[in-house]
């Protein structure tokens, strides 16, 4: 066998170093994303849910769009004059773009933060882990994704976890069912947006569509929340709340989502999804260590089922790995 030449060997080493940097950043952001749930729980003790959500959305969405713009500006500087962050959208595509903007960047974060205010951060992260399973299930029903027996096992496990979590929320001593319902509704809206945006992503690209839906949905969100934002005692907020808004939004949400998008090209969606599925584990651990949130036995059991189901479906199922996919990102 002919040994690889120096150029080929150097290219392999370069790809290995790049992959290692992505793995390192994603490992770090597992805990930053988990900490975001804990910080949000603390911030909601001082702020109205919609005020905090909009403030963090502005920081995260603004940072994400700025990073996208810098990325496109660099391409233009390198000679690709056709690189545009906000392309001209056909008139016939505007209703779909507005719909996905309202679902993904207005209603979903709004209902999600209201649900978090009625539960706790670790529990909200468990509902979030159900997202990949719901998305794959809809994709199978709409014939956009293929699922093998491992995928069916994953859906079954996630279903058991969802049933357990819902049953735990109905207990009189917890009474989380309203918050659970809001979180589940927000999750369904996010999943629906991911499928509805696919034709737009195919036509205009994922980055332009994510940027456009963030700006459109975010502007509407600010208008809805304006009365609450005006009444908020901004000067009296504690340092932890400002950390949750500025760092949690700008770094945890904005930079974190940008890192996920960058890692997709090198690592592929399967490995990146695995890191996202580990966030609930980090959240449960951080909430227990920092603010003393003791997860119930049923929450631990349901979390194990949901995370295991997501890994079976998104990582271990070979049919799903081969299915055509269109990735997007979310700002929350």
What report would you give on this structure?
This protein has 332 residues and is mainly α. Helix content is 78%, strand content 0%. The chain has one domain. It has 14 helices and no strands. The longest helix is centred in the first third of the chain and has 38 residues, at 6-43.
Offer a concise description of the structure.
With 332 residues, the chain is mainly α. The chain has helices at residues 6-43, 49-77, 94-117, 121-129, 131-141, 149-169, 177-196, 198-204, 206-231, 239-267, 269-277, 279-290, 297-316, 318-322. The protein has 14 helices and no strands.
Distance between the termini: 52 Å
Provide the helix percentage.
over 70%
What's the total helix number? 14
Low-confidence stretches: 323-332
The radius of gyration over CA amounts to 20 Å
Shape: globular
Using brief descriptors, characterize the structure shown.
332 residues, globular
Secondary structure topology:
Blueprint: H1 6-43, H2 49-77, H3 94-117, H4 121-129, H5 131-141, H6 149-169, H7 177-196, H8 198-204, H9 206-231, H10 239-267, H11 269-277, H12 279-290, H13 297-316, H14 318-322
Helix pairs in contact: 1-4, 1-10, 1-12, 2-3, 2-9, 2-10, 3-7, 3-9, 4-12, 5-7, 5-13, 6-13, 8-9, 10-11, 11-13
């Amino acid at each position: 066998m002919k040994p690889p030449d120096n150029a080929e060997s150097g290219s392999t080493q370069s790809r290995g170093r790049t992959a290692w940097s992505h793995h390192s950043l994603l490992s770090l952001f597992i805990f930053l994303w988990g900490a975001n749930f804990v910080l949000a729980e603390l911030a909601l003790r001082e702020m109205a849910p919609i005020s905090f959500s909009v403030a963090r959305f502005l920081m995260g969405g603004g940072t994400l769009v700025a990073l996208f713009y810098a990325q496109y500006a660099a391409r233009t500087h390198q000679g690709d004059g056709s690189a545009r962050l906000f392309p001209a959208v056909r008139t016939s595509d505007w209703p779909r773009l507005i719909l996905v903007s309202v679902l993904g960047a207005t209603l979903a974060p709004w209902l999600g933060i209201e649900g978090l205010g009625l539960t706790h951060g670790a529990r909200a992260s468990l509902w979030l882990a159900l997202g990949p399973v719901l998305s794959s299930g809809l994709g199978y029903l709409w014939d956009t994704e293929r699922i093998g027996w491992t995928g069916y096992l994953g859906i079954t496990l996630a279903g058991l976890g969802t049933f357990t979590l819902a049953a735990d929320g109905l207990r009189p001593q917890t009474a989380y069912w309203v918050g659970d319902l809001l979180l589940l509704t927000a999750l369904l809206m996010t999943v629906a947006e991911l499928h509805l945006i696919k034709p737009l992503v195919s036509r205009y690209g994922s980055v332009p569509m994510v940027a456009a839906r963030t700006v459109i949905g975010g502007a509407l969100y600010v208008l809805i929340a304006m009365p609450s934002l005006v009444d908020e005692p901004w000067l009296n907020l504690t340092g932890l709340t400002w950390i949750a808004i500025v760092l949690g939004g700008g770094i945890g949400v904005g930079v974190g989502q940008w890192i996920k998008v960058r890692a997709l090209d090198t690592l592929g969606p399967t490995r990146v999804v695995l890191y996202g599925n580990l966030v609930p584990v980090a959240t449960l651990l951080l909430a227990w260590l920092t603010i003393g949130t003791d997860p119930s036995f049923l929450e631990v059991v349901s979390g194990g089922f949901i995370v295991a189901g997501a890994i079976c479906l998104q990582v271990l199922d070979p049919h799903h790995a081969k299915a055509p996919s269109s990735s997007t990102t979310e700002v929350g």
